[in-house]
Each structure stands twice: as structure tokens, then as C-alpha cells.
Amino acid sequence: MKIIKNISIILFLLVANNMFAQVKFEAKVSKQKLGVNERLRIDFEMNQDGDNFVPPNFEDFTVVGGPNTSLMNSYANGVKTYQKTYSYFLAPKKKGKFTIKQATIEIDGEVYKTFPVTITVTAAVDKPNGQPDASDIASDKIHLVAEVSNSSPYLNEPTTVVYKLYVSRDVGISSNWREKQTPRYNDFWSQNIEIKGLNIQRGEYKGEDYRYVVLRKTVLYPQKTGKLKLEPLVLDVTVEVPTGRANIFGQPIMTQVPKTVTAGSRTIDVKPLPEQGKPSDFKGAVGDFSFNVTTSKNQLNATESLQAKIEISGSGNLKLFELPKLTTPSSLEVYEPEHKENVRTGLGGMQGSISDTYTIVPQFRGKYPVPSISFSYFDLKTESYKRITSEEIIIDVVEGPTAVVNSSENTDENNTKQTVKPSSNAFAFIKTSSNWESVSSEGFFKSTSFWCLLLLPFLAIPLAIVIRRAKDKRDADVVGSRIRKADRLAKKYLSEAKKNLGQKEAFYESLERALHNYLKAKLNIETSDFNKEKIETLLTKKQVESTVVSDFISILESCELARYTPITNVTMQNDYDKAAKTISLIDKQIR
Length: 591
Known about the structure:
5-stranded antiparallel β-sheet, 31 strands, flat, transmembrane helix
């Protein structure tokens, strides 16, 4: 009887152990009845890790989010609990009763299937019942806004568009966002303003406290009147939404929801410049300007040169109009002007100066007047046209040949042209002869240089053999070559981060980008697909040591944590050294 009792106990323990080790693979839905304007979350949960997960065909639904993967390990009373979940967010296409078919996964060589789930879709509801799902929360808590400084400017008046991403304090956003659609500004002259680092700032959105970052600043000068449309900026972002659950350490468990956010298109109504009072010499200048015409000297000799400079400075559309032309007497030789621009563009528009510099060479003695030049522009402050006129300039040529006037032509009062007789000394400043001296040289044949050049190829042969053997030896050193290649790769990806040492936000952004780009190059997958669990799995499959993988994950966590905590320069240097060492080790070990 005692033997039978012992056997019974053993059998009971085996059955109990088998029950605890039983594989569970289930499909769970957030609700089984919903309105056609509501969304459904479906989770495929398993208590053991598996491969080759195949979701059902959601033919009656539109997948608006997912798959999102979450992983949870916990210990209670010495018992380990494992749970892995694939989550999808679905929007019904129409009313009716629909069946979500089976999903499959392979665990330890066995294929497991979920049970089909029946969902009833009713007419649209005014107020969806129940708690909003993660996708709805993400939609309500993140907003992309295009702020236009002036929605009704004049033609060629600057206006600024600033794109801000507002994120509620209740959610987070991962760093692997990307621009899905970049705005193009048809009918505008545009220039982007450089943004150094995405600094997190505090602000309000519709009366609520939000965090925001400025993603893009662009200055626009409309080149056409009427209603002009600005194409939207569209981003793909991953929003981290709290699930309402916590891990064993009390930290909230987050789920990642992919979202596409857009700033929407904006319309700018461009006003034409007024016709009343428009000067005849107006060439499109709009802003606030000063105008000067100067010469490098007013007195010189014939065949010498001087420079006449026409310069406009101030703020306005400096790059978008032509400068007035210089007019001179026909007896002055004038060359094509050299155009220079010293213009900087900020949020207020263009500021600086533009100029044309003419080179003038007089040929004859005399006094030559340079007529005054006028410049007109539209002043935005007074909304009126203004004209600036330069003073007349006299160029006094004190020495040189004299122009000869033909007396027969002078009798015609209507003929003001002069016939000029050039002097024979007009090109006296050009040398037409030279004093050459012969240079004696020794014979090259059989000289020292001759024998050196003759023997040089023979001396180079042993040197080439030595270099070749050294290269073969270096190529044969596979381990050394791999180490050198790994070190070069680490320096390549971390070069930008090294430049930003000492600047916390810029350093950790460039460091995180370097780590993602490295993984993208080595694993051939998009960084938008990365999460820490997937990185760990992929690197482990590539036979990278677990300690090296842990160091890589810890560096990524440091990049995320650094955005919200103060960091010293010593810590940044340590993180940089650790990243360089870890990338080098991964490149040596990866298979």
C-alpha cells in the first residue's frame, strides 16, 4: 500500500507539473460589440516564446495600428511567469456580425491556434462606451501644428512657418520618428532656418499643459498674389501610451502605438502691391532699405582704373530684385559689374546688403560726370513707395591724351557726338620689349642626375617587394584586419557624436542616431522596427555575447534618460567611450 501511495504522489506531481507547463495561446478583444465609428483592440497572448507568428486576415476591418509587441517577465513565490503579446488596433469597415479567424504560432516545434472571435458592429454611437483604446489616446494626446506669422502678407513680404509637435504629459514619444511628407512651397521663395537640437519646451495647446519641440522653421516670400496653399508636413511617430498596468517594480507598463500626424494644409492670402503711386523705375524691392553709390577715387590719370559701387542694404527681399544700372559717358570704358551678396536669413526675413561693383578705365584727360541713379522700393511700415536718389559724381582725369573733336560735325547743333582721335601713347603702360639673358647649362647626358634617374627603377624593385610582403602579411592576419575594421566602423558612426561632446541634447541625439544607423547597416532592417527586445533577440541570434548586448541596451537607455536628467561632461565622455567599445566588440563577434 505504501508503494502504491508513493506512485500516486509521483503521478500527481507529474500531472501538476504538466498543467503548469501547458502552453497557452489566446486571442482577447477589448469589446465584442462596438459602433462602426469605434475601434477594437485584439491581443494575441502566449505564455511561452514562439516563432512564425501568423495573424488572421482582418478582411472586415482596417488595421489602424500594430502589430505592437510587449514582453513581460515576473517572479512570484519563486515561480517565473512569462507573457508575450501581439496587439492590433482595428477599425470596422461596415455594420454587421464578423468573425476574426484563427492566428497561429509555432512553439517548440508544435503549431498552436487561437479560437475564432465573433464581433458585432452596430451603427455609429455619439459617445463610445468604455475606456478609449491606446490608439484613441495617442490621437488625443499628440498634435502637429503649423504656426504662420502672417496669413495675409503683401507680395514679397516675408512670412514665417514654424512647425511644432505638441505631446501631452500623459504619453511619450520615441525618437525614431520620421518625415513621411515634406512640405513644398509652390509660388514661394523659401529658406529653412537651421535648428540646433530639438529642445523640449513647455507650452499650452487648447488651454492644456503640453510639452513641445520645434521641428522646422521656414521663411517664405510669396512670388504670386492670391490664395496660395502650403502643403502639409506629415510625420510617422511611435507614441508610448500607458496601459494602466505596472510591472513588479511599480513602474507603469507602456504600449507603443504607431501614428501618422499632419499639420494640415494652410492657405496664405497674398495681397498685390498698390498701383497708386508706383514709381516707373520700381523693380520689386519690398522692405526697408538704404541706397548708396560710391567710387574708390574721383581723381586719376588716363588708363588707370577706379571702382564704382552701387550698394543696397537693409531688410527685405534682397535676393529677389535687380540693382539699378550705372550709366556713364561713352568715352569711359566700363566692365561688367561684380555682384556680391552679404545676406543672412532669420525668422524676420533677409537682412544684409547686395552690391554691384563696376571697374571704369578712362582713356582721355577731362572731367566726366556720372549721372545720379534712383532706387525705388515699397516700404512695409508705411505701406507706401519710397525713392532714394544718389548724387552726381564727377570723375576728374588729370593726365592723359586729349580727345580730338571733329569741327565739321560740330557745326550741326543737333549732333552732340564727338569724334575721338586716340593718342599713339594710349598703350604706353604695356611693355613691348624685354631684356633676356642667356642661361648656360651643363650637358645632361652622363651627368649625376642622369645616372640617378637611370638606376632609380632598379633600386625601387627591392622596395616594392618589401612593401608587397608586408601587405600580404597584413591581409593574412584575419583577426587583426577584423579588429581594425571594427575600430574604423565605430569611429565612422560616432564621429558626429564626438563633435557634440559637452552639448547634452545634441550629443545624446547624435549618439542614439549613430547606434540606430549602425544596427540598420549590420542587421539590414529599418530602425522604425526596433525595440529593445527585438535588438536583444537579433544580436543574440548573431552570436554576440550577452554582456555586450546588455551594454548596447544600457547605452540606448542612457540616451533616453539623458533627455530628462542633468548630465555632466564626464558622464558624456564615459558613454561615448562605452559606445565606441561596444560597437567595436559587436562588429568583431557578429556572425
